[in-house]
Amino acid sequence: MTARFVILSQPRTGSTLLNATLRRHPQVLKHSEILNHGQRHNLPQDGYQRLMQALRPIARYRAVGCTLHAYQPDRGWPDWQRWETAWDALAEDPSIKIIRLQRVNALAQLASWKIADVLGLWGDQSDVTERPSVRIEPYELFWFRNWNQMAFDRRLSCLGQHEILEITYESLCDDWDQTISRVQRFLGVDPLPISQPFPKWETRPLDQVVSNYAELQAGMKQMKRWREVDT
Question: Which pTM does this prediction carry?
Answer without folding.
Answer: 0.91
